[in-house]
Design brief:
This protein is 82% helix and 0% strand. It has 397 residues and is an all-alpha fold. The protein folds into 2 domains: 183 residues, MFS general substrate transporter like domains (Growth Hormone, Chain: A), CATH 1.20.1250.20; 195 residues, Growth Hormone, Chain: A, CATH 1.20.1250. The chain is globular. The two termini are 36 Å apart.
Length: 397
């Protein structure tokens, strides 16, 4: 691994630890200290997610024009200021404004970080991204564990300290990134041999849409599983924590290994199909867990989480490869922003959608969700090949 890749991994770890602190403490801060209702918080966070969606392609384009490292330093600074402002929130209106600002800064950083990974990783950029995903999971787990002390105190001061440490983590990350060598923008191909900048790349958008559908799986364990256990199974509620820990450990241990299997668009298509099959099987197992004794439910849920996590890992490996491989090298920032926007739409909709499908409709909803995953996964082959032909045509024109 190059020095720049190690620096990027260190930066991602710092940010992930801060995010773990934030994820564990922000909602409690808003409800217990600011006095917002759970509905207010959920609505505000949804607004934040939607507001930030359009920022990725725009700021990613700036990274393509002026250099990913330089723009990343700006977005990290923006994240620090926006996150730190959260401690000033005393009402719903201000929370919405601050949350929207955080969402814009976060989506911008995500797109620019994708462009930086593409430059630093070179031909191994998808594998580097898989490694960084493992690092992220470690960092978030460490941060969430560290937040326990503040949660134990349960005071505004304690929660504010968590948020300010998260804000400081972005500044510390910026210091690490600033030490990396500059990555100058890649020259744009001859205008006679390509279409205009900012074009609407329909094949890439189609790939983005299918991976967006598959990204619904990220909310299965965090949103649907706890509610499913409580309302439809005989298993105990305490099972949620070890199941989520199992997911984290498997991702940390296996994501890099899965990435080593993917070196081409064909590999990405194959592993995405495998992911769809695994995610569908996981849905079937979640469906079966609603029957039988508490011990039976616990065993089936454990197997379901393991199978689902293997699908999650395979999905991520395919997603990383295609997201990079189908994007022009000189427009990685804009394309990573588009890709992130597509998955962001479905991730934002996932809590409400999965609640309706899996909780309200029960076992039938899990079967329908499995069918959605299988259809999206099997459809990735022809769509990705269409995008590949389109990209090759532009290069050879």
């Amino acid at each position: 691994m190059s020095g720049s890749a190690r620096a990027l991994a260190c930066a991602v770890l710092i940010t992930a630890i801060g995010n773990g602190l934030y994820l564990a403490g922000a909602v409690l801060f808003l409800t217990r200290s600011v006095g917002l209702s759970g509905t207010d918080v959920g609505f505000g966070l949804t607004i934040a997610g939607v507001t930030g969606l359009g920022a990725g392609p725009v700021v990613g384009h700036l990274a393509d024009r002026f250099g990913a490292r330089e723009i990343y330093l700006l977005t990290l600074t923006a994240e620090a200021l926006a996150t730190g402002s959260l401690v000033l929130v005393h009402g719903f209106a201000m929370f919405v404004v601050v949350a929207a600002t955080v969402g814009i800064a976060e989506q911008s950083s995500r797109a620019v970080r994708g462009a930086l990974i593409a430059r630093v990783g070179g031909d191994g950029r998808a594998r580097l991204r898989g490694y960084l995903r493992s690092v992220t999971n470690i960092g978030v787990a460490l941060g969430a564990a560290g937040a326990g002390l503040a949660i134990r105190f349960d005071t505004r001061t304690a929660y504010s300290v968590l948020i300010l440490i998260d804000a400081a983590s972005f500044l510390l990350t910026a210091l690490v990134i600033a030490r990396m060598p500059r990555q100058p923008p890649l020259p744009r191909p001859d205008r006679d041999h390509t279409v205009r900048p900012g074009r609407l790349d329909l094949p890439f958008l189609a790939v983005t849409g299918l991976y967006g559908v598959l990204s619904l799986q990220y909310a299965v364990l965090t949103v649907a599983l706890p509610l499913w256990i409580l309302t439809h199974t005989t298993a105990s509620a305490w099972l949620v924590s070890p199941l989520l820990l199992t997911n984290t450990l498997l991702v940390v241990g296996l994501q890099v290994r899965a990435g080593r299997r993917v070196d081409s668009i064909a590999d990405a298509i194959t592993i995405t199909r495998q992911a769809a099959v695994l995610l569908t099987l996981g849905c079937l197992l979640f469906c079966v867990s609603a029957t039988g004794s508490p011990v039976f439910a616990m065993l089936v849920l454990t197997v379901a989480v393991i199978v689902h996590t293997l699908g999650e890992i395979a999905h991520a490996a395919g997603e990383f490869e295609l997201g990079f491989a189908l994007a022009p090298d000189h427009e990685q920032g804009r394309y990573q922003g588009i890709f992130g926007m597509g998955t962001g739409v479905f991730i934002a909709a996932a809590p409400a959608l999965l609640s309706v499908l899996c909780i309200d409709r029960g076992q039938a909803g899990w079967l329908l969700l499995g069918g959605i995953f299988l259809t999206a996964g099997l459809g990735i082959g022809p769509i990705a090949r269409w995008a590949q032909r389109s990209a090759a045509h532009l290069v050879d024109a």
